[in-house]
Fold this sequence. Notes:
Layout: H1 2-16, H2 32-37, H3 59-62, E1 67-68, E2 74-75, E3 84-88, H4 91-106, E4 110-114, H5 119-129, E5 134-135, H6 139-144, E6 149-150, E7 152-155, E8 158-160
Parallel strand pairs: 1-6, 3-4, 4-5
Antiparallel strand pairs: 2-8, 3-7, 7-8
Amino acid sequence: xxxxxxxxxxxxxxxxxxxxxxxxxxxxxxxxxxxxxxxxxxxxxxxxxxxxxxxxxxxxxxxxxxxxxxxxxxxxxxxxxxxxxxxxxxxxxxxxxxxxxxxxxxxxxxxxxxxxxxxxxxxxxxxxxxxxxxxxxxxxxxxxxxxxxxxxxxxxxxxxx
Length: 161
C-alpha cells in the first residue's frame, strides 16, 4: 500500500509541475487538432545551437528508410505553424538545396538531416544553408505524411519538393 501511495504522490507532483503537449498519438485517433493548434513555445525559435564538437553521428541517424528521390506534392490537413525540410548528404539533396536555399531561409524552415556521411558533411551543408541542421530520425514523421523520399519541405499545409 505504501508503494501505491508513493506512486500517487509522485504522479500528482509530476502532473502539477506543468502540462504536457502530445504531438502524435498513434492510438487510432487523428492528431489533426493537436498539430493544427501546436505552436513553438514562447522563447523558442527556429534557430538552433551549433553542433558541439563532442557530438558524434550515430548509426541510427545514418540509416533511414527514406531514400533520395522525387516527392509528389500533396496537401495535408495538419498545420504545424512552422516549416521544416528534410535533406540528405547525396547529390540529389544537395542540388535541391542549391535550388531552394533562398526560399528555405525566407520562410525560416527548420532543417532535418538524415543519411549524413560525416560530421564534416553536416557542417558543410549547414554552412551553405547559413544555419545548422538537426540530425534526426524522421522516418515516423515522414510515414505519417506518406513521404518515402527526400529531400522534402512541409510548408503551409503541403508536402512538396
